Amino acid sequence: MPDTTYLDANELVINMGPQHPATHGVLRVKLKLDGEKVLGSEAIIGYLHRGVEKIAENRSYAQFAPYVDRMDYVAAVTNGMGYVEAVEKLLGVEVPPRAQYTRMILAELQRIASHLLWLGTHALDLGAMTPVFYTFREREEILKIMENYCGARLTTHAFRIGGLQYDLYDGFEKEVLKFCDYVGPKMDEYETLLTTNRIWLRRTKGVGVLSGEDAIALGVTGPVLRGSGVRWDIRKVQPYEAYDKVDFIVPIGEHGDTYDRYLVRMQEMRQSVRIIRQGVDRLASGPIMGKVGKIIKPPAAEVYHSIEAPKGELGYFVVSDGSTHPYRVRVRPPSFVNLQALDPMIRGHLVADVVAVIGTLDIVLGEVDR
Fold first, then answer.
1. What is the residue-level pLDDT of the chain in tens, covering all 370 positions?
2. Beta partners for 314?
3. What pTM, to 2 d.p., does this model score?
């Protein structure tokens, strides 16, 4: 932040976080204020750093897989999907169709769970208490399905290099379709509470505006990018798993403000339900693992692979030197990249709007710091 005096006003520098409940983890935001108006900011990270990428160099490819589940701990399934797909590219392994559809279904359930947690906490940050109870109620049904499938609720280690370790349990399809029937009307309830609520509109419309050009220049992805009117979704433009075999649309916003990003995520949850239904209908019998040796030893090569995680583009750059351990693993997490848009989005707004903008970015500090 430049040391500049605006309009001969006395400037105040304060710390928001890392203990602030609305920073969604251990984020410290250094704010330069003129009264309550934000003149500039600096996001200070690193309070949750665990050296995940360095750990990869001292683990085998399979041993490292559970570590990525702990980055974005709100969307562990998609973290694991991106990593195992990157290693499968190195190996040249073809994943069987049943495993592809299962992965896609679980990833979309995870997207809904992630968005539900975002919606509840974002609304709570802005003073609406009721939605957090509603969204956690629906999220619990997804966590039950995850627990029945692989025994974990939060840091869900669902996939293996080459496919799946576990086949689907009896009644999985029935439970998933039952959830789809259940959650649709609940989304209408959320919108009844918020979409036309005058307090919600005042707190979100015109707040944290990010143009499509600025969003692209800053490298932001996911709902933040699509809320700015850019129709970019890796599931569509670079399909993986079975996404090229299902029909869905990519919702976008018009104004690039906090309200548009809310609407985009609401529509994304409905599209996820649509994808899940198609996936269950096309789930055929067959093997769940491709041809992978007991010892995973890719040839010396490097690969970058990215997926559309709930928060945006999650990419893995994996370098193999021909041994059983990765030579290098580098993660491109959406929360980390999207966070750099915070400063231009909050300049000129009030301190209370900083809370709204941090919430609309939907960051998780375990992914930012790694």
1. 555 555 555 788 889 878 888 888 888 999 998 888 999 999 999 998 989 999 999 999 999 999 998 898 899 999 999 999 999 999 999 999 999 999 999 999 999 999 999 999 999 999 889 999 999 999 999 999 999 998 888 888 889 998 898 889 889 999 999 999 999 899 999 999 999 999 999 999 999 899 989 999 999 999 999 999 999 999 999 999 889 999 999 999 999 899 999 999 999 999 999 999 999 999 988 888 888 888 889 999 999 999 999 999 999 999 999 899 999 999 999 999 999 999 999 999 999 999 999 999 989 998 998 8
2. 307
3. 0.91
Domains in the chain with CATH codes: 51-341+352-369 (1.10.645.10)
Q: Can you read off the two tokens belonging to residue 357?
A: 């903008």
DSSP characters over 79-140 = HHHHHHHHHHHHHTPPPPHHHHHHHHHHHHHHHHHHHHHHHHHHHHHTT--HHHHHHHHHHH
> 14 is written with which tokens?
């304060």
CA 291, CA 84: separation in Å to the nearest integer? 14
**Residue 111 near residue 182, CB atoms below 8 Å:** no
Using an 8 Å Cβ cutoff, are 248 and 270 in contact? no
Q: Which residues of 158-179 are buried (b: 16+ CB within 10 A; e: fewer)?
A: bbbbbbbeebbeeebeebbeeb
